[in-house]
Specification:
By secondary structure, this protein is an alpha/beta fold. The protein contains 18 helices and 31 strands. Among the domains are: 108 residues, Roll (Luciferase, domain 3), CATH 2.30.38; 137 residues, ANL, C-terminal domain (GMP Synthetase, Chain A, domain 3, 2-Layer Sandwich), CATH 3.30.300. The radius of gyration is 24 Å and the shape is globular. The chain binds coenzyme A and adenosine monophosphate.
Amino acid sequence: MTTYEQEYACSIDQPETFWAKQASELDWFKSPETILSQDENGMDRWFADGEMNTCHMALDVQVANGRGQQVAIYYDSPVTGVKKQLTYEALLKQVATFAGVLQQQGVGKGDRVLIYMPMIPEAVVAMLASARLGAIHSVVFGGFAAHELAVRIDDAQPKVVVSASCGIEIDRVIPYKPLLDDAVSIAEHQPSSCIIYQREQLKAELLPERDLDWEKLVAKAQAVPCTPVKSTDPLYILYTSGTTGKPKGVVRDNGGHAVAMKYSMKALYDMNPGDVFWAASDVGWVVGHSYIVYAPLLSGVSTVLYEGKPVNTPDAGAFWRVASEYGVKGLFSAPTAFRAIRKADPDAELLKQYDLSCLKTVFMAGERLDPPTYEWVKNLLSVPVIDHWWQTETGWAICGNFMGIDPKLCKAGSSTLPSPGFNVQILDEAGLPMGPNEQGSVAIKRPLPPGCLPTVWGDFQRFKSSYLSTFEGYYVSGDGGYRDDEGYVFIMGRTDDVINVAGHRLSTGEMEEVLAGHPAVAECAVIGVADELKGQLPVGLVILKDGQTMSEEELQAELVARVRQNIGAVASFKKAFIVERLPKTRSGKILRKLLRQIADGEEYSIPSTIDDPASPPEIAGVLSSHGYGTDRAAK
Ligand code: COA
Ligand code: AMP
């Protein structure tokens, strides 16, 4: 049996041999001979001369290998009371036909298809149909508002938008069409058509010159075959929050992605063909792309598509019910989901109703797995609980515990060891490697393994300046952390203005832009403050323009509405407080880390570069009057 150490060493010392072997597990139209090369930007690329199609590997090959009658998707929707099973054969038929629909709308290789849909099988069908044509999909999470959607439409410039009439949040029907209409009216780029899937809960009114009905198009369409693409051709663009207001379009290629997905499904999650995997996330996030859709299907695994919440749909036993009903072997979710379950049912009384003998491992990611949540889940389920660290940019885990190779003992607070292919280093400010237990910037020495982004859509310079130019030869993750004496990696949080709210990645910079647009606001800062349930919650600190007399209550209500309107409900922006001044360096940079420390009641030291040393205690006073932190006085 290969040990983790052997596997890891081989991946780092002989990356081409290692990844050529993993690539040979997939069914290529033309097997790659060039394993690792560089593109015109000097970026490392995998399998450049390989030809393939991701949809072919995920569906046609599975059916050809005898998996046609196996369930590909278990759709479970407590919010509508619908349960449905789609076999690989049925899914292939739907996807090939919907690819025919897209083709009729002029979609071909390299065109973009924007998908704005709730957690319904049609979302997966649209993604795979786009892949089948060699087109590039860009899924936008349903919780984002019109403005965010418009920004993505302008950046990706989709030929076609695919959407649904509504989403359902517990018991609230969220109409999607008005959001889509607003977004298209704000956007400069105009899609040539919008295909709308009409749900029973709410029928949308279609615009005759632009909107088309999904069902009607499908009824007239012909199934189409897969279009071969190059390994390095993009499969999708997924926008993620950066430090500025403009989200970054993370590009994922076809070949490297397929190889990374298939490899990780076995090596990390220990899933074999025929097993059932459930990533309780959303197709709008990277976890949904990788582990609801692509990795399970590329591996002949059955996947669960769950349109519900961990609590309130209808109760905190929902996860246990779904896992038991479909024989889930591996369950993946964000710690916040388990914190929500624990809050609603602290002794997990509801668990007693279900047989969970099928469940072998629980995987967590998306935010730091706090030790109390880790212990609670581990003791409750008596299965390994695996924390693994990753990002939209990498598409799969940078660190984890490799259950399919050689499971290691877990340490609470650690995402265990670097994944094969990821040369993880802790660097100091000068870019020099740091010793054990020293905290620094977590970076990955290039080449990045297959599956990681090769660029930001349409903006290689932004990719370079955001990730590659800080330390020569390294990709910087934006997370801080350390490795202990045994090499275990501990991720301690972002070193930039990105926050994590209920496992959703958000930019405080983007919220600041929205707040700053309010006519009464002179200056503002948004910080992520620790929250027991959601991990972090955004809080705005606002300086009013001279002469403004708005009350704090009134201003807060308007700012909350603005963020909801511009970014979306998912931002969970509920608090804004008026302050007289904000602590800044002499060069005018707001000291956000200091603000966060004050709000969280952590000890803080006032930097010598501060412009106005009186401001931190003043802010502490404001925050403590609202129940945040305590002024632990500067040292
Ligand atoms: N469409 C429309 N609105 C959405 C939405 C969607 N797809 N997803 C979330 N929202 C809305 C919610 O309804 C809520 O609105 P409200 O402020 O009017 O109540 C708001 O956005 C905030 O949502 P959320 O942060 O998810 O809070 P919640 O209270 O609804 O649920 C949890 C809390 C912990 C149960 C939930 O966040 C959860 O299950 N998290 C797991 C996260 C996850 O899977 N992350 C992916 C990485 S693995
Ligand atoms: P996203 O791109 O939405 O997946 O968010 C990525 C960010 O979430 C990372 O940069 C981390 O800050 C955080 N994150 C994800 N997984 C973990 C984890 N297991 N432990 C700590 N932080 C995590």
